[in-house]
Amino acid sequence: MSKTTLVSLAESLGVSRQTVSNVINAPHRVKPETRMRVQHAIVESGYRPSAAARQLRTRRSMNFGIRMMPVVDGINGSILDRFLHALTEAAQEEGYRVTLFCADTDAGEIRQYEELLKVADLDGFVLTGTHHGDHRTAWLLEHGIPFAAFGRPWSSIEDPFGSLHPWVDVDGGAGTEQATRTLIEQGHTAVGFLGWPGGSGAGDDRRAGWARAMRAAKLPTDSLDIQADDGVPAGAQGAEQLASKGATAVVCASDSLALGALAKLRQLHPEQASPALIGFDDTPVAAAVGLSSVSQPTEDAARHIVAVLAHQLAGSSSPHGDEEPAPERHLLLPPTLIQRTPYSFSSST
């Protein structure tokens, strides 16, 4: 019995050799029904493509890198943990591997790019934590390195290359707008916002969503906007300031801030078992204490980033009837408000 080859497999299925190659090397580019038919035939025939030959042919290592961000308080870091897990799964399904590396600053990350491109021959990178004046995107574009970002380019002036590279982000402003509307619909007319200092792209976006909802309801925002560094202690201090200004409900830019605010509001108003409070990120800690929070579709974001990066790495090819359209290069995903009632841990007497 002769050995199954890529050519014989394509002929038996009545498809082109390029289609079989795409199913193996770039499955996202093939229509689902064709992809499933070819994959089934590969399994049935026992055909085993050589990974070494594929790397030699494509001149790719089938590996891309992503920086592990420093841990702040272990609460909001769980979002990137979920993202990384989903990214690794999606990459594996596409035939790629993920290389993790550490850097304390963006400049350090760029130095790691240079080192990894030399010693590990990585195919590209995934960026997280995009911000104003982000030099990483400019460096990668200047050197022609494929990459995709989890986060928008926040300024067309400081980052004029935003339209030139793929990115996926979550619409944080829509999330805080929905959270604020929900509290207003519950009867609150003084909804405070507890967020990060100005200049943070994601933080400013979340603050803008709160402000839109307040303006739409013709409610004042003066003195109800507190800016603080992220973390539980800052959340407690910010909640105390908002309470002194008459806020009866609070929307927070993160669950870390919300958890600090929850403890402080219970201390200030022990008669209120369930303070009107909504966080952001829907972390496991928020779920454990029954805290309402805005949930990010991190798994969807990770899968799309891998799809768009894999398509970029595969390069363009001539149109073929079996190929799927290219994935969207710029995708803004909607978040979801998860409503809960905070648990009361006080014992009855």
Automatic annotation (TrEMBL):
Residues 320-331 have a biased composition (Basic and acidic residues). Residues 314-334 are annotated as: Disordered. GO terms for molecular function: DNA-binding transcription factor activity; transcription cis-regulatory region binding. The keyword DNA-binding applies. Coiled coil: none annotated. InterPro entries: HTH_LacI, LacI/GalR-like_sensor, Lambda_DNA-bd_dom_sf, Peripla_BP_I. Keywords: DNA-binding, Transcription, Transcription regulation. Residues 4-58 form the HTH lacI-type domain. This is DNA-binding transcriptional regulator, LacI/PurR family. It comes from Arthrobacter subterraneus.
